[in-house]
């Protein structure tokens, strides 16, 4: 009796999968779709209010859809904070931190996870402790160091701070991944004459690339949403990030409800676009990490 071919087995498996999809599976899909709709309600409310006039907001309330597309609130907020320049600052800082923190995490984790340096456990414990420290405890020491080195009120100071902060988490995560790296691959590379640098970039990095892509996305989003340290370090308007500009203008009570919604919408859209662009990369990285 001959065995069925691979395509035939795949077709039978797909047919069995279709037969197993019963009412419970569709109920789960409906529940997830309803949950996604509920989570989108605040975003829709922000969009509605950003497109209203103050008079329309007062008469109809915050939950009513706008009668038309009024971009006055968005235009006023854009001009008031010079949003194009502020947006460029946030993209530059967040992108630089994401790339530099991933590189620093790779180097540190390679030494800790594969190099097995002395005191590895103590270093990992220190990194874990650093991840639990509140930013309020770091503000004054970092402020004093920035003043001493003459980089206060510069984007470079915030990039350096968040590169170190984010790489602490990245190092802790990657070191656990690299500690379980298959030793036969490393030994085979060394037998072929590869040095440590070549082993890192030609053997280790291609294997852990999905994890690196996940860290890159997380570091960008986390840095984008930071408020306390950028507010303390970036006091001039030309260096402010999006979150700081929103907080400062809101604190000065210079915005009505429609402009506040426009500010929230403009501050949220870049991260949403970034997440949608890298959604496939993020899902592949999480799936690959789960399979491994």
From TrEMBL:
Topology in membrane: Multi-pass membrane protein
PROSITE patterns (UniProt xref): ABC_TM1
Transmembrane stretches, start-end: 26-51, 86-110, 122-144, 156-178, 199-224, 259-278
Coiled coil: none
Main location: membrane
Pfam families, per database record: BPD_transp_1 (PF00528)
SUPFAM superfamilies noted in UniProt: MetI-like
Superkingdom of the source species: Bacteria
UniProt key word Cell membrane: yes
Alphabetical keyword list: Cell membrane, Membrane, Transmembrane, Transmembrane helix, Transport
Domain ABC transmembrane type-1, residue spans: 87-278
UniProt cross-references to Gene3D superfamilies, sorted A to Z: MetI-like
Subcellular location: Cell membrane
Family: Belongs to the binding-protein-dependent transport system permease family.
Name the UniProt record assigns to this protein: Carbohydrate ABC transporter permease
Source species: Actinomadura violacea
């Amino acid at each position: 009796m001959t065995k069925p071919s691979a395509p035939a087995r795949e077709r039978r498996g797909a047919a069995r999968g279709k037969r197993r999809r019963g009412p419970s599976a569709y109920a789960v899909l409906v529940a997830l779709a309803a949950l996604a709709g509920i989570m989108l309600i605040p975003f829709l409310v922000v969009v509605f209010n950003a497109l209203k006039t103050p008079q329309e907001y007062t008469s109809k309330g915050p939950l009513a859809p706008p009668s038309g597309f009024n971009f006055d609130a968005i235009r006023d907020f854009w001009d008031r904070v010079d949003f194009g320049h502020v947006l460029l600052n946030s993209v530059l800082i967040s992108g630089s931190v994401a790339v530099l923190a991933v590189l620093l995490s790779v180097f540190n984790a390679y030494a800790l996870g594969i190099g097995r340096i002395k005191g590895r456990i103590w270093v990992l414990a220190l990194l874990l402790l650093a991840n639990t420290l509140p930013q309020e405890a770091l503000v004054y020491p970092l402020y004093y160091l920035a003043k001493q080195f003459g980089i206060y009120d510069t984007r470079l100071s915030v990039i350096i701070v968040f590169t170190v902060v984010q790489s602490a988490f990245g190092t802790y995560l990657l070191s656990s991944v690299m500690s379980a790296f298959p030793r036969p691959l490393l030994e085979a590379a060394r037998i072929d004459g590869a040095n440590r640098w070549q082993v890192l970039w030609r053997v280790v990095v291609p294997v852990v690339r999905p994890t690196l892509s996940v860290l890159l996305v997380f570091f960008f989003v986390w840095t984008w949403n930071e408020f306390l340290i950028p507010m303390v370090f970036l006091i001039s308007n030309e260096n402010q990030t999006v979150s700081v500009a929103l907080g400062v203008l809101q604190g000065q009570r210079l915005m009505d409800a429609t402009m506040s919604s426009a500010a929230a919408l403009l501050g949220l859209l870049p991260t949403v676009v970034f997440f949608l662009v890298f959604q496939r990369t993020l899902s592949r990285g999480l799936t690959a990490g789960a399979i491994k």
